[in-house]
C-alpha cells in the first residue's frame, strides 16, 4: 500500500511522552463555564457550548487540539485548531461525544480528527499501562490516505481516489507471531493491545506514528523499546463482520460465554489472554480477508 509502503524499513513511532509531546486532556465538572465556539467547518461540527477556558490545556503544534471530559455528565468535548480567550473562541471543527452512547457521527462528518472519530478513546495512557491492560484500539496516522472511509470512521481526507491507499478507519494488527517476550512488562501491555485490538487509522500525518497522552511519567526506556517494533510486523484486518449497524460503534460479541466459539464471531480477538505477562505471546488468528477493498487483500506490507 502506498500509504504504508515503507513498512519494510520503518518502525513504530510513539508520538507522545513528557511535555510537550502527546495529547494533554482536561477533566472538568458541571461548574466549569461553557462558551459558544465559532467553527470553520460549522456544517460538520456540534454547536456546543464547550467547557473551554483559560485553564484548558491544548495540544502543542499546529493542530492545537483540545480534549475535555465532563466527569459529571460523562461527555467528551473535542476541538481542532482552537484559538481564543475569555468568552470568544473559534476552532476548525468540534465534536461532542456522550460516553454512554455507541452512536457514530453522521456519515460524511468530520470531528476534531479527520476520520470523524473521537481522539481520546484511541490514546495510549500511562494509567492504563500501570493498570496492566489497554482495552481499545490505538489511534495512528499515515501520510497518504484514500478518498474513502471504513466503519467505524465517518469521514475521509484522502489525497487521491486510489484503492492502493488505506482509507480512514483501516485497522492494522500486530501479528500474533511477533515475539514480545523480550520487551519490558510495561511495553508488553501496549504491544498486547496492538495484537488484540490493533491500530486504527484516524488522520493524515507521519507514517506509523501512534498516539498517546502527554505525561511526564512516560519512561524514556519504554518509548525507546516501542521504536524498535518493525511496521512490517503489522497486517491489515477486516473488522466488518463485527458491525451491528453502520451508524453505531457497537459490535457483535467478540468472545463466547461458554465453550466453543459463538456462531456470529469471526476467528479473531478471543485468542489473547490479557493476563499474560511473559513467555511466548499468544497467537492471534487473522481476521477474514474477503472484502471489496483491494488495499486490504492479504499482502506483505513491505
Low-pLDDT runs:
257-302
- Give the distance, in angstroms, between the N- and C-terminal Cα atoms: 9 Å
Total helix count?
Answer: 3
Compute the average pLDDT.
85
Oligomer: single chain
Count of strand segments: 13
| Overall body shape | globular
Total individual domains: 2
Helix content: under 10%
What would a concise description of this structure say?
With 302 residues, the chain is mainly beta.
Topology record:
Elements: E1 13-15, E2 26-28, E3 37-39, E4 66-70, E5 75-80, E6 83-85, E7 88-91, E8 93-98, H1 126-131, E9 138-142, E10 171-174, H2 185-196, E11 199-204, E12 209-211, H3 220-226, E13 234-237
Parallel strand pairs: 1-12, 2-4, 3-7, 9-11
Antiparallel strand pairs: 4-5, 5-8, 6-7, 9-12, 10-11, 10-13
What does this molecule look like?
By secondary structure, this protein is mostly beta strands. It folds into two domains: 1-21 and 123-302, no CATH class; 24-112, no CATH class. The chain is 8% helix and 18% strand. The strands form three sheets. Strands 1-12-9-11-10-13 form a six-stranded mixed β-sheet, covered by helices on one side. A hairpin with a 2-residue loop joins strand 6 (83-85) and strand 7 (88-91). The longest helix has 12 residues, at 185-196. The termini are close together. Residues 257-302 have low confidence and may be disordered.
Amino acid at each position: 500500500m502506498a500509504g504504508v509502503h515503507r513498512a519494510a524499513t520503518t518502525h513504530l513511532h510513539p508520538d507522545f511522552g513528557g511535555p510537550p509531546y502527546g495529547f494533554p486532556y482536561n477533566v472538568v465538572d458541571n461548574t466549569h463555564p461553557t462558551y459558544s465556539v465559532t467553527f470553520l467547518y460549522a456544517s460538520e461540527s456540534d454547536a456546543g457550548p464547550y467547557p473551554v477556558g483559560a485553564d484548558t490545556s491544548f495540544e502543542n503544534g499546529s493542530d492545537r487540539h483540545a480534549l475535555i471530559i465532563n466527569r459529571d455528565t460523562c461527555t467528551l468535548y473535542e476541538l481542532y485548531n482552537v484559538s481564543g480567550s475569555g468568552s470568544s473562541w473559534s476552532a476548525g471543527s468540534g465534536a461532542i461525544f456522550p460516553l454512554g452512547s455507541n452512536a457514530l457521527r453522521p456519515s460524511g462528518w468530520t470531528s476534531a480528527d479527520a476520520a470523524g472519530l473521537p481522539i481520546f478513546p484511541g490514546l495510549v495512557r500511562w494509567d492504563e499501562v500501570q493498570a496492566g491492560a489497554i482495552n481499545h484500539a490505538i489511534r495512528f496516522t499515515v501520510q497518504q490516505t484514500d478518498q474513502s472511509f471504513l466503519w467505524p470512521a465517518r469521514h475521509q481526507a484522502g489525497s487521491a481516489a486510489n484503492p492502493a491507499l488505506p482509507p480512514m478507519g483501516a485497522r492494522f494488527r500486530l501479528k500474533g507471531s511477533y515475539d514480545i517476550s523480550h520487551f519490558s512488562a510495561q511495553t508488553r501491555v501496549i504491544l498486547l493491545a496492538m495484537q488484540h485490538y490493533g491500530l486504527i487509522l484516524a488522520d493524515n500525518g507521519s507514517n506509523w506514528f501512534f498516539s498517546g497522552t502527554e505525561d511526564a511519567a512516560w519512561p524514556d526506556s519504554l518509548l525507546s523499546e516501542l521504536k524498535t517494533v518493525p511496521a512490517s510486523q503489522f497486517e491489515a484486518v477486516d473488522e466488518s463482520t463485527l458491525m451491528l449497524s453502520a451508524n453505531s460503534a457497537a459490535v457483535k460479541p467478540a468472545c463466547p460465554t461458554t465453550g466453543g466459539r459463538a456462531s456470529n464471531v469471526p476467528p479473531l480477538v478471543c485468542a489473547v489472554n490479557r493476563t499474560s505477562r511473559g513467555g511466548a505471546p499468544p497467537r492471534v488468528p487473522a481476521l477474514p480477508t474477503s472484502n471489496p477493498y483491494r488495499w486490504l487483500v492479504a499482502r506483505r506490507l513491505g
